[in-house]
Amino acid sequence: MNGGLLVAGTTSDAGKSVVTAGICRWLVRQGVKVAPFKAQNMSLNSFVTREGAEIGRAQAMQAQACRVEPTAHMNPVLLKPGGERSSQVVLLGKPVGEMSARGYHGGRQERLLDTVLDSLAELRATYDAVICEGAGSPAEINLRRTDIVNMGIARGAGLPVLVVGDIDRGGVFASFFGTVALLAPGDQALVAGFLVNKFRGDVSLLEPGLEMLHGLTGRQTYGVLPFR
After folding, report:
1. Contact criterion met (CB below 8 Å) for 138 and 187
2. Model pLDDT, residue 103
3. Dihedral of the CA atoms 44, 38, 61, 18 (nearest 10)?
4. What is the number of structural domains in the chain?
5. CATH number, domain at 157?
6. Which of 6, 36, 163, 213 could form a disulfide bond with 132, CB atoms 3.0-4.6 angstroms apart?
7. Is residue 48 within 8 Å of 97, Cβ to Cβ?
8. How are the residues of the chain apportioned to helix, strand and coil, as percentages rounded to the nearest 5?
9. What domain range includes position 118?
């Protein structure tokens, strides 16, 4: 893992936040000093740290899983939707103004990458491992140029990527294969493997699909999590 990992998902609500928290708690139990990280979050509901900084609630929950105090570096960019096409931008826990979606993706997001990478570097200098959470899907090809939360952060920090898929929705194998296929070759090289989430039933029934997925992508599935 080389001190870090990005937990990405084939879709929104694939289970990235909970999987990230679970990995964090497991590492803590192994004696690893670990912290969570999400470069950019979009939510109206924020958590206020002891220092008065606003971050996403998921990162506060993940910090609890790590048994550490949440800080602004764990979620350096928080977008709080204020209307259909604009959001309040919270940078390192403090509001810095409103911005339209077009303005944000038109240049501001790229300029924030340095801030995001600095926050991640700060955490990596303090902790043995930092488990990063992506947003949506890493294969949003229309947003590739301005991505700072999925493959953009994985490239910038040299992170291996674990892709989580929600099998309860159906189509998880197509989602895994399609996600890898739509990534640029350099980004494909960062994908370490897959995790099947929210499975119901007999895991042995998945084996033919997992074997074919490995044959198609060259990557293994690291686990199957039950739906509970």
Report:
1. yes
2. 59
3. 100
4. 1
5. 3.40.50.300
6. 6
7. no
8. 45, 30, 30
9. 4-226
